[in-house]
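Sorry to interrupt, but I need a hand with the structure work. Could you add the entry underneath, on a fresh line?
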Amino acid sequence: MKKHTVTAALAGLLVLSSAVPALAADVKPATGIQVWVDGKKEAYKIAPIVRNKQVLIPLRQLATSLGIPLDAKHITFNTARQSTTIRYDQATVVLVSGSPEAQINGIKVPLSTSTILTKQGVTYVPVDVVKEAWGKQVIWDPASQTLQIGVSNKDKVVEILKSFETGNTKAAEAWISKDQYIQHNPSFASGRDAFLQGISQSKGANVLVEVQRVIQDGNDVAVHYKKSIAGKTSIGFDIFRFDSNGKIVEHWDNMQDSAPTNPSGHTMIDGTTQITDLNQTETNKTLIRKFVDDVLVGKNRAALESYYNGDQYIQHNPLFGDGVSSLKQALSAAGQGASIGYDQVHMVLGEGNFVLVVSELKSPKGTSAAVYDLFRVENGKIAEHWDVVQEIPAKTEWKNTNGKF
């Protein structure tokens, strides 16, 4: 999501020193609302308010709770437009008083209620902007008058994966659904208990997890990482699906033994990590889905070169080097009976310049494999690629009946 230019610096940290515009509203602060952020109870000098059964918090206090610096670099206010712009953690958020939507990285996002500017010069923002802009979990319980702003789904996933280093199941117990968890790794039984057991058994096994990339697409979080067990290294992708309450309810993954550097000197995990172009997410997903259909499934392989900026292409597959010419050789071999040629695309996830595609292919031996391809898009062209391929075991070896996909 998230970019905007403002014309006036923040004055008095969001408390106007001049007359407040006529559209400013009267509000009545709520009483008894408890606000918890990342497990810590906040003591706000200015109480939140409730409008349309939704909670709004004074922006300055919310920013302090989230760790957003109260300076003109991060927060600016435009008096003429009655708008506030927040720049923090790859998100540029524009809120306009009286509007029930936010502009996040240039994309209009509906909110539960409108931003409010009071006659006293206090800007109240709907708390769901925290979820939309920064992926935080937001839970409002009107019965107990308690608002909880929690750990982002990305951070939850990283902490769960890092749990395999210690064998501590605390994070997984907190964030994996006890009753609804669906497991697609055929080596695990379905349900949370089997996953917890896997973490416990890793204690003392000299496990090291190095997370390289994390992308989020709606309720899905995908992670690209390196895992070492007693010195043996593999490269993996995990995908976790969350429900509306921030609990993990489904999981897929794919692992491949780590290989030496490819002919261009790249590993299966190194390369670009920064997420950019968040306002291009859907465009990039559409581009990559069409590329997979045209080139990897094979519907129109003549279009191959149109997806690249000349030969400016970084390849992390261990068998091939940089440049489109290397990929063309692989596809030419496919036409002569090699195993490349995808049979089905199961999932396409993206965030900004990164798009992950989950596919299935059949080898000449008649076995099936899962392929996770991660693409980086730059200026509408494919600029970088990573992949992990794992053969799917026979159904007689599966410990659950959910299937790999």
